[in-house]
Amino acid sequence: MIDVAPISIEFASLNFGTIVPMLVAIVGALVILCIDLANKKLDKSLYIMLTVLFLIVDLGTLLGYSGDVRGFFDLMLVDGIAILSQGVIVVAALVFVITAMSNLRFQEYRYPEYFALYLFMVAGFQFMVSSDSLILIFVGLETASMALYTIIAMHNRRNALEAAIKYFTMGALATAFFAFGSMIFYAITGTVELGQISEILVASNFENYPMILIGVIFMLGALGFKLSLVPYHTWLPDVYEGSTAALAGFMSIVPKMAGFVVALRFFEIFISSGDIYVEIILYVTVVLSMTVPNIIALVQTDINRMLAYSSISNAGFAMSAILIGTTQATNALFLYWILFLITNFGAFTMLWLNRSKDYDSFDSDHSLDKYSGLIKTSPFAASMMGLFLLSLAGLPPFALFWGKMYLIGSAVNAGYMILALVMVINAGIAGYYYLKPIVYMFLKDPIEGNKTKYMENATTPIKALIGFCAIITILSIFLIEPLLEIISYYVQISGY
Q1: Res 358: pLDDT
Q2: Which tens digits make up the pLDDT trace of 386-436?
Q3: Is the pTM of this model over 0.85?
Q4: Given CA atoms 310, 311, 317, 320 in this order, what sign does their dihedral have?
Q5: Would you call 443 exposed, middle or buried from its count of C-beta atoms within 10 A (0-12, 13-18, 19+)?
Q6: What's the N-to-C CA distance of the chain in angstroms?
Q7: What span, in angstroms and rounded, lies between the C-alpha atoms of 70 and 231?
Q8: Exposed, middle or buried by CB within 10 Å (0-12, 13-18, 19+), for 276?
């Protein structure tokens, strides 16, 4: 017999702190399920409070982390980018779950499983951004995606199940793309860690380049689905229409933040080495993702679908930072997405507050006609919606203007003049369709017989959040410099 020496692993060497934030979310989900098993008669507000509590603890453990960058057999990579993106993900999850404290409780909020799945989903996205191992990124992606499919299907809207099936089908295709791409890079380099893949490819001078390019296309397909880039975006408007406005807003922010970080880590391999073919592929994808949805959004009469196409265009806008590949562009990406989080949360939450349980009017629930003369019937709702739409349009001095300006500035400074021009043109196109709902709200008369009770869904915590977002949207000019300092600090310690 051959004696095999036992493998000795010291607990300290695992750097357990790297996975504590994700464990907090996972434990929170399990606690909610266990409480429900013990007593099914508890008020569902308890589960909202527990979800908020565990997300706050998650954020606290994340911001308090000061250990080594690597952990768990080098699978975890908690660098500045990981901490920054996890912070955006957890804060976004925190504010969007508070929308569940509305006056009207819809189908999915009756089930504690909804909040457990929500926390599992957040943990999955946190794992995605906290590793450069393709295996762990894949595990995080699937954990988050499976939970999200189920959450969409739990909604009792007529087309919710259809939306969940479409999302699942496209997600399965994207999963296959990611697996094939990972397999190709493992076959070429013998590793699944992006850092080592980069070293081996550069050292070999990108030998076997056709196979590398095929791998890149597979990975772009997978990430393009998660980021809803053109032409992988076709599922998004239907999914937004079949989801609640609050969940649609969540999907427009959190999954894309995770996708941007994975794309940043992956494409940095090729952008830093000046790979012209990958740059061309990214360039075309970015330009199409900004332009095509903007043109389609011009003809939309449903505000939910309009915002869906808008979020696709915004994802293309932010993706340009990865193409540019400079430190300023990376800073601009995070600044843009943080400001987009604030503005988009406000816009989608206003739609959510105007939601009713009148299921006979579902098809026209978010028709622009519904908002005709809103300034006369509900001045507060009209003012808030108008403010957030003006910010999304990129008009100064509102929040998203500064994000767009900084992103366009990074393109100009890097010599991407044509790209900067395309970005400016698309910002102008977007301004037109964002102003269309404002015209309906402020310049048209209310439709006779419209029995919609605006703000019926509002509660004090949600109104407070809306007010907070409105203040930040208006006074954002005073926050840009501090935000950029924080972002720059974390980006620099990551080496991007």
Answers
A1: 47
A2: 888 888 888 888 888 898 899 999 999 988 899 999 999 998 888 888 888
A3: yes
A4: negative
A5: exposed
A6: 51
A7: 36
A8: exposed
